[in-house]
Batch of 2 targets.
Target 1
Amino acid sequence: MDSKEAIYLYKSVPTEELSKLANDITLKNYSDKIFVRGLLEFSNYCGMDCLYCGIRKSNSKAVRYRLTDEEIIETIKFGLDANIKTFVLQSGEDYNYNVKELSKLVYKIKKITGSETAITLSCGLMNKERYKELKDNGCDRYLMRFETSDENVYSYLKKGQSLKTRIQGLENLKNLGFEVGSGFMVGLPGETIETRINNALLCKELELDMIGIGPFIPHDETPLKEEDSGSLDTILRTTALLRILLPYTNIPATTATGSIDALGREKALSCGANVLMPNITPTKYKKNYLLYPGKICLEESGFECISCLSGRVESVGKKISYEKGNSLSYSIKKIREKRQ
Ligand code: 5AD
Ligand code: FES
């Protein structure tokens, strides 16, 4: 379907109908499989001061932590035992985390996990050389949301930073051969339906392999504490739009979506999402990676999350798949490149 038609539907069709359309595309391309990624929030140190974020530099109430390499490896081993084949290591934009150390860590992990697994990093914006070093050491995928396609809102939320630089970072990652993920928040102050449509079109333009979206949820220790949260209906409609525009991309049902509605993730899985990311961070640290309040799964272990998610997936008539789960869009790109 062309973009114009998709936007027309986004603007005019009831959510249920839009969801059905998106779910049909998902079933056709992924059958009933839901890929799992083990999410490890390994450090909440952050050098940034984004207005929306609970672990922003200025939040002196955030209790900072960084897992040791040993703790990280132990957690990964736990994940391997639970059959997980993709690990997402996320941190704040922590410039104290030396990229050499990070590369060494990736190398160590990859040695244990082997080529049948994928390592994804989500550690923010870096220059091309640093990304290359991470790639050379075995990092397969990189996630970095652009948050909003509105340049003015972006620079307001990120204290004068430029959206163009962020997008250049995503382009660099793509050119280095990473599977690239990005995404945005829904319901940010100043956002309109046009912003959301432009967000989705930007995802398409960037040919993303993964797209994570979630509702903005105001955190009390940030300047946006008085703002409203994004709504579930908007998340579901936008997920459906993304699936219609990008039929071969991996789209997670995110924790933030599960945090504003007890069945938020199940609903997202029924309207275009095909990935879940159980949080396998050791429980003693989980509560300190609080980007927004009301985050779910803080008391549960990674093991509990994985078994809870299988039940949730079954409730919408789908099945957890323990495959590595490359994005179809990435595989198609690779085939195209080989042919040229
Ligand atoms: N509400 C919802 N999502 C948030 N994120 C950061 N702060 C919030 C918030 N207050 C999201 C951003 C970031 C991702 C890791 O978490 O989109 O990229
Ligand atoms: Fe964590 Fe359900 S996914 S407890």
Target 2
Amino acid sequence: MSVWPMNLPASNVGLMVLRSRPACMEARRVLLVGSGGREHALAMALTRQEGVQLHTAPGNPGTARLGTNHPVGSGDVTGLIALADELDVHLVVVGPEAPLCDGLADALGERLCFGPVAAHAALEGSKSFAKEAMEAAGVPTAEHVIVRREGALSEALDRFSDAPWVIKQDGLAGGKGVLVSDDREQAEAFALSAIATSGSVVIEAFLPGEEASMLVLMDASGYRCLPASQDHKRAGEGDAGPNTGGMGAYCPAPIVTPDVQAKVESRIVAPMHAHLSAQDVPYRGVLYVGLMIDEHDDPYVVEFNVRFGDPECQVTMPLLGDHALEWFTAVAKDEVAEMNRPLETGALLTVVLASEGYPSSAVTGREIAGLDLNARAVTGQDRAWVNLAGVKEDHDGTPVSTGGRVLSVTGMSDSLQAAADLAYARLASIDLDGAHHRRDIGAKAGVQHSEMN
Ligand code: AMP
Ligand code: GLY
């Protein structure tokens, strides 16, 4: 299956930075920041390039087998700068948003970094900043008001009372900063607590439709949209239950037809690129565009993130083939417009295995059976593999759960159905007491699920 018109150059709008040579492969020593399933997927992608020396801070047992883990937390910007200097890495690839919001890319100075400076990372760090940027760029999004005082809250809630209220805390909240509710009392209480925590709250119109995630590699020279994916944010099947970090994803997402893709590029990505390129420092990294696509196939922005999605990353990175390092290096050097590496074709689907009690309170510290940490990477067209997230090794090498989202199993094949069959079959061989997973990943894209899932 073809998911991208092969050999098309990256889209190329706004400021062009022309250089005489293509994005070259100087970067070999790489520091990857983070420790989740997303970072394990990034580590797998980066090390497909021969000769890469991967260093991860702090990493997990999966990244440890692809390079060297260092005991520096992803929130420790000073420690990360010192590590990058000590290792004299050619490129820093930042997984999570928090160090970007805290200025890691700024503090790296001349060192190449895949991940934007803090002034752009505020697109994720502040919902009101993101809405203002969308307004300035003229991209379609939900109408909104920013409420800073308790006294103005009631009027704002009245304004949006004909559909569920959508209330967004104005700061990083680890995925817990948004409430969508029909219950006014609950909406009011959430908004008051958000104002108390972050000083302001965004209240916006409810957007009906179906969500999709578009990951866009972006720098001053241009951008390249990767094939769209779809996350499954709710804990329960049929999109029931509480919101989570993401319980599974697939790519490509059929809801993003070529027509929708063209609208997303012309109405959202191109204007955002122009807006961001006009700032003092260009955006260099991945812009995650969270989309709502309505019944007329018109896309609206629900949110921007300044990093790869987790688990969207797990189903998108393999499409970069052996060239992830080249792409990331090109972005860090403002050369993405010159990159013409074709993406791989294929369909991917990933299922997250979560600990008992996740997302409210995860039970951890349990042994995981059927998981061989030393399994060699599989290659070929039809394959399934595991990305580790909340997993550590016991003193004797036994894998033990340490977090809410423990791991994700990804299948890759020529159709989403075949990818799902591979992923679920692999997941069935892993055993963690009390763990749960969704058995309907991909259902909206027509994937059929057997009882066994
Ligand atoms: P956010 O962190 O802004 O992506 O919001 C988390 C989730 O809340 C999204 O993935 C959507 O499912 C939902 N959501 C956010 N904003 C809206 C909106 N304006 N209309 C409908 N659902 C929304
Ligand atoms: N999977 C949603 C996110 O990474 O924000």
